[in-house]
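Chapter summary example.
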Amino acid sequence: MKRFFTKHKNTLFVSALTLLSFLLGMFLLGQKDLSLDEIATALIVQDWNRMLHIVTFTENNMWLYYLLLHFWQAFGTSEFALRSLSVIFATLSIPVIYLLGRKVFSNKVALLAILLIVVNVFFISNAQNARAYALVLLLTTLSSYFFVQFVNGFSETKKISKKYLFLLVLCNVLSVYAHLYALFVIASQAVSLLFIHKKQVIKSLLISLPITGVFLLPLFLAPSLSGQPTNWIPVPGIRNLIGTYLILSDDFPPIGLIYLALFAGFFMLSFSKKSMKHVFDTSNWQRKYMIIWALLPIVLSFLFSLFIKPLYISMYFFICLVPFMLVIAYLIDKIRLSWVKLSLVVLLLLLSSIRLYGWYSASSDLHLVISNNTEDWKGVATFLTTQTRSTDAILFFPPFVQENVDYYINKDHMPLDTNREINLQPDIYAGGTGYEQFDSKKLQSIPVHYSRLWYISGMYTDNAISDQEKQINTMLKNNYTLARTVPFYAITAYLYVRK
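The structure predicted for these 499 residues follows.
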């Protein structure tokens, strides 16, 4: 028995961490309501024809995930069921990360990396999110593994491996269909070719890029590409870069400071030797690729957002978590004193456990960027069902608030007459085309027909619709008196009585 454990200890350790990843992902999975984005996902995938219409004309991202989740609904449409697919993708990524880390660095680095990733709140939060992030993490990690295998295979055999090249192209195509940010990972692979001094390898990889592009044509030729799904994204600044670093560092400042100290100490040591060749063993192109993969998506997205069009969202850099944590594990492994190394790992696990407690308990004191609180759509739906009169009108703003509240009204079969809801601009995820204009005439007619009005207002970041909110507020001020305010998480219900 002892010999068995000694022989298979790595396999057992990876299996144990994979199981732990699954259990942490499933823990309290259905406890909270679906978030705004998750409800958008649920509304898109619930009907096949609507899904095809939306991805063709409105939503140019996450096509593969929507397709898979549409069929996954056979297992149910509860919060637990919808999110469980992401848990499976995240769990499957753990052994792939290990294989990649072992190939690029060492067995110890790979094991340490997956240990730290499994308890990373950025990893867990996306594993419990009914969005495409866990899927794109799995596919980009697979892509990078096949990328490294392809180049290393040529170094060992002097032959081009069509198998790994095919798998690389396949994973790259699928990853982009899962999330457009995967294009940055492909760009990282292309940039890393500068450090690969093998003409046949470079030629094969350069040929694979247009082949990848051909398979992505449906995505880039779809009318939805010219839509406006990112208009709500603001121009980023230094604060956004800091936020990105924090979420990669477990969204916990103590861990972020430890990682900064690791980077600073290693680079100072390297510079003290007056030779840059020691930094990350730069003779090894694979480690250069890890650094490029960790940094290039952030840098390119930031510059693109500054000079062309804002698209910088810190949460999207989940695609950088794997190389970031592999580099961190490598830096820890470089510490020579074993007791210092062990103490640091124990400290990091302790801090990660504290941050995970904050995640599962939805504590407002233990998060900076990643929150486990979702908008209280179900609470609003229940409130309107029990507290409104049959003659009251209900006005929602922005439009998605109505669709999200109605999602829970319909899902839980609540006895609320939705005919009293005033729809000023249908939301695209619940049947709207995305081209309807804000109905100012209907807005001005409300006081004529209703003496009591419930105004349900949700938080939003799109400055383009602020003028519409001003129109609503002007109408309310001129015709109604505020009689009651009922706060929910990220939503507020106002009762107005006609003057």
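To summarize the output: Confidence is low (pLDDT under 50) at residues 278-282.
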